[in-house]
Amino acid sequence: MKTSEDLGLSGIHYVMFVSYSLTFLIWGGFVTASGVMSIYYFSKYIPKFLVPISVALGPISLMIGNVLMGRLADIVGRRGGIYAYTMSLYTIGLIGMGLSILLSNIIPASEAFIPFVISYILAEIGVGGEEPPALAAATELMPYNYRGSILVLMTNFDNIGAAIASAILLLALMRGTQLSATWTMIGSAIIVLIVAVIIRLVTPESVRWLAVKGRVSEAERIASEYGLSYALTEGSEQGVRFPPLWFRTLVLSLLGVSQLATYGLMAFYIVYLPSLPFSNNEVLATQVLLWANVGASIAGLIGLVVDKLSRKTFTLVSFLGGLLTMVPIFIIYGVMTKSVLASSLTIFYTLLFLNMVFSELGWAVRVLLEPELYPTRNRATWVGIVRLIAWAMYVFLIYYLLASANTYVYLLSNLILYVVGFLAALAWFIFGIETRGLPIHALDKAADRR
What is the mean pLDDT of the chain? Predict the structure, then answer.
């Protein structure tokens, strides 16, 4: 039997990569970006107190999908029935969002907003539900020497999708209306979804999960059919000992809160603040989404070399860079609010771009460590739990900071969050272990011990 050292990426690996990448493309590009900008449009027609509540509903729904579908993925599998639920939810949600936008041309926008919100919730639950099983499956099925690259590159399609959607929206706004642009994005998402469904039909179940569940003969048959036998190899004892479960979960939760909140608050929801250079201008606000996600997309290409880097050092540098690039944003736009610098869009977009580069590196850290530090038998469940903690804090911050609409507090909160992330990264650098290059059987044994 070949070992993972003898293997490169085969056709089925590329099929899985495309399948999982399309999920993230739909999430970032068409559900989140179109949802944020549609709420931005509807905010002119609904009571002001509903704006922060409506904005928070997206992350809340995604959080629900993370937890419920993460647990379900450990029960029914990474493929199987789980995708019947998730794909159905965001298909219905995307179609509903599109129809709601069309309705706003026929009935009052405040009334069309109700079916829009319901559809947005369903879509976010669906795409959120695909995250834990996709991360788990990629961790369990990819050769260890490509695992990090696949995890980072496939999740980077979240940023690529958001950048593409923002560019579509920006071009359409310069030529027409926001609603027609948003409908274009949602229509594009439905086309991508059809492709994703077709590709998903040929992706295999995680043979590692099947073996853990006692379905060994089925696992061996699928592994033989798809050339995945290395995923079932136990191999020699690696002698790796993970830190205690509580420490792993605490560090991952703090990293998650720091990265998720700072990314979302700076790349998406900052457009709702009334006192920044792009305020009350849809074209300039759309450029915030565009430049933030272009920066994140470029940084995501770190996936091409991430398997050559120490996970511990990469974690520390990512969060330190985020902290250092957040400092000038806070000083200029939170403290020096009346200065010439604070009125410059060029300076803001440049600093935002750099900050999002490091934010994406922090995201890469999360998608590497979260599935690597838990065992196959409950990997998706723990990924969902860690993300629940991050999303819960994120939702609280979105509501509180947008309800107060205080730019100083908003940016200071981001700075504090980066400090928290850096301290968690430092703790992992000192007390954590290196997971780069460990095959799946070694990760499972180390994670099961403590």
Answer: 85
According to DSSP, residue 205 is labeled P
The tokens of 193 are what?
Answer: 């979804």
The number of beta carbons lying within 10 Å of the beta carbon of residue 327 is 13
Alpha helices by DSSP H, 176-302: 178-200, 207-212, 216-226, 245-267, 282-299
432/149 Cα distance (integer angstroms): 21
Closest to 367 measured CA to CA, from 420, 427, 431, 296: 296
Burial (CB count <10 Å: 0-12, 13-18, 19+), residue 190: middle
CB 83 within 8 A of CB 130: yes
Residue 28: which of 129, 203, 166, 199 has the closest Cα? Answer: 166
278 and 287 Cβ atoms separated by less than 8 Å: yes
Which residue is it, tokens 């003969």? 217
Least confident of 122-131, 272-281, 418-427: 272-281
Residues 6+ apart with CB under 8 A from 143: 4, 7, 8, 9, 13, 230
Query: pLDDT of 61-76, one tens digit each?
Result: 888 988 888 888 888 8
Res. 258: pLDDT tops 90: yes
Alpha carbon 232 to chain centroid, angstroms: 29
Prediction pTM value: 0.83
Q: Is 346 exposed, middle or buried (0-12, 13-18, 19+ CB in 10 A)?
A: exposed
Residue 220's Cβ-count burial label (10 Å; 0-12, 13-18, 19+) is: middle
Least confidently predicted of 125-134, 242-251, 367-376: 125-134
DSSP conformation letters of 2-55: --GGG----HHHHHHHHHHHHHHHIIIIIIIHHHHHHHHHHTTTS-TTHHHHHH
Residue with tokens 């899985």: 16
Token pair of 313 as six digits: 């050092």
The amino acid that residue 134 corresponds to is A
Q: How far apart are CA 362 and CA 317, in angstroms?
A: 9
Handedness of CA 302, 308, 309, 310 (dihedral sign): positive
Q: How many CB atoms lie within 10 A of CB 394?
A: 27
Tokens 């647990």 locate to 71
- Number of Cβ within 10 Å of residue 244's Cβ equals 10
Integer CA distances (angstroms), 344 to 68, 277, 332, 341, 425, in order: 44, 7, 10, 5, 33
Q: Output the CA torsion sign for 69, 75, 78, 80.
A: negative
